[in-house]
């Protein structure tokens, strides 16, 4: 089991977003094929806060993240594209932070989004 899986710069709403592949990856966590204690979303979950730009596959990723939040700890590090992450985080059932210190064995890692 992994201490954490870190995903960065999803950019949901962008044409370059690989939402289908991301959904498949998240499904592996959900089914236990890729076991982890926590999932860290390291900023820029959204490309912009204009939700009209989200395609069906992007909404599916958000739905899967909501389900995962019931199974593992999901932490969202706010990025410069995320706007008011606190509002969306409540819908997804995840906590939002500016940074996190991850303890893995004897090592400690500071995780923050690049705009800081």
Walk me through what this model shows.
The protein has 116 residues and is an alpha/beta fold. Helices cover 29% and strands 25% of the residues. It contains three helices and six strands. It has helices at 19-31, 56-68, 85-92; strands at residues 5-8, 38-42, 73-77, 95-97, 99-104, 107-112. The strands form two sheets. It has a four-stranded parallel beta sheet with strand order 1-2-3-4. The protein has a two-stranded antiparallel ribbon with strand order 5-6. β3, α3 (85-92) and β4 (95-97) form a beta-alpha-beta unit. α1 (19-31) runs parallel beside α2 (56-68). The longest helix is centred in the N-terminal third of the chain and has 13 residues, at 19-31. It starts with a strand and ends with a strand. The model has no long low-confidence stretch (mean pLDDT 88).
Tell me the fraction of residues in β-strands, as a range. 25-35%
Global morphology: globular
From the alpha carbons, calculate the radius of gyration and give it in angstroms.
13 Å
The beta-strand count equals: 6
| Strand arrangement in the largest pleated sheet | 1-2-3-4
In N-to-C order, the SSE pattern is EHEHEHEEE
Q: Would you identify the regions where 5 or more consecutive residues have pLDDT less than 50?
A: none
Terminal-residue CA separation: 30 Å
Assign a percent range to the helix content.
25-40%
Instruction: Give a short account of the largest sheet.
Output: 4 strands, parallel
């Amino acid at each position: 089991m992994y201490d954490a899986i870190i995903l960065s710069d999803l950019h949901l709403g962008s044409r370059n977003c690989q939402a289908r592949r991301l959904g498949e990856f998240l499904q592996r966590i959900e089914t236990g094929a890729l076991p982890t204690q926590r999932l860290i979303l390291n900023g820029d979950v959204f490309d912009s806060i204009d939700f009209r730009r989200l395609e069906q596959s992007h909404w599916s990723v958000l739905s899967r993240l909501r389900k995962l939040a019931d199974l593992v700890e999901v932490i969202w590090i706010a990025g410069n594209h995320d706007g008011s992450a606190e509002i969306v985080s409540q819908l997804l059932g995840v906590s939002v932070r500016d940074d996190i210190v991850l303890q893995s064995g004897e090592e400690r890692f500071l995780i923050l989004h690049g705009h800081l």
